[in-house]
């Protein structure tokens, strides 16, 4: 293994990612100094990825860097916050060399441009365990306007952005290890797993419209159930309205049982939110204005839990709610 020492690593790979932010102090001081902005609140979120569990060491390292940042940016999007800065914590294992870290940092650099965020600090340690990567991201939202999980009302419509289940099917395709001559549809599904698209623009535009919001990371039904629990309500969802991409539809034709993976598979990083029917058109307009697609999939009601029905109003059993770590 070939690896540069801790301080050289920070200097050569990470300090360039902190250029242009005075408060980062060139990553050469003990901490960052951030300037609060009048009339805004700071939204903070942390995520960690562990090799062998959330990614594999043979995944392209630039994509791992992008995914690491993007899962946190998705949390900010779900709160209606605009991304600002982030901290990066690395527990480096023996099998992680300079070339891996260089490619990883290039992925971060690409997404810093794409999402307008900058690195302002972090920590670098070594571990005898698996490689662990963590990002703490900070975003801004006008005071009082953060989108919470807890604000849903009875009668609110339930919306979801993009399409659901691609990532779960993509992960299955990766795990089944299909040959390189794979179909385009399958490649697209794999990409959806490897490189989520946080709905930053949509989250910001849902301020003042959405009554509650969450990003779909554990699975559509599990995450909708989180909104139900904290809002003290139930959700009624029409299966036929759940947006499923053409590539996912193609997989379902061959294997209809995979519908369960669509409902409970995680890692979609789409926004799942509720809004009053009175703002139905405004929600659509907000999505259009940032090039996002949103679909109304159901309605919030009294009671508890999530009910999914088919076109004949027959209840569909959801076998597994979603992903849990323990
Ligand atoms: P301390 O020992 O006081 O915790 P460190 O030596 O760990 O400080 O870090 C020195 C500087 O380098 C700090 O500004 C810290 O934020 C930054 N830093 C360390 N690791 C990283 C990293 N992985 N990414 C970004 N900044 C880092
Ligand atoms: Mg330290």
Which labels suit this protein?
326 residues; alpha+beta; 4-stranded mixed β-sheet; 10 helices; 11 strands; 34% helix; 24% strand; binds adenosine-5'-diphosphate; binds magnesium ion
Q: Quick summary of this structure?
A:
This protein has 326 residues and is α+β, with helices and mostly antiparallel strands. The chain is built from ten helices and eleven strands. Helix 5 packs across helix 8.
Report what the structure shows.
Helix content is 34%, strand content 24%. The protein is an alpha+beta fold and 326 residues long. The strands form two sheets. It has a seven-stranded mixed sheet. It starts with 5 loop residues before the first helix and ends in a 10-residue tail after the last strand. The mean pLDDT is 93. The site of adenosine-5'-diphosphate has 12 residues, from helix 1, strand 2 and strand 3.
Q: Provide the list of bound ligands, each named once.
A: adenosine-5'-diphosphate, magnesium ion
Which value, in Å, is the CA radius of gyration? 20 Å
Supply the helix-strand structural class.
alpha+beta
Bin the helical content. 25-40%
Output mean pLDDT: 93
Overall shape: it is globular
The total beta strand count reads 11
**Strand order in space, largest sheet:** 6-8-5-9-7-10-11
Straight-line N-to-C gap:
33 Å
Order of helices and strands: HEHEHEEEHHHEHEHHEHEEE
Query: What's the main sheet like?
Result: 7 strands, mixed
Strand content: 15-25%
Low-confidence stretches: none
Counted by DSSP, the helix tally is: 10
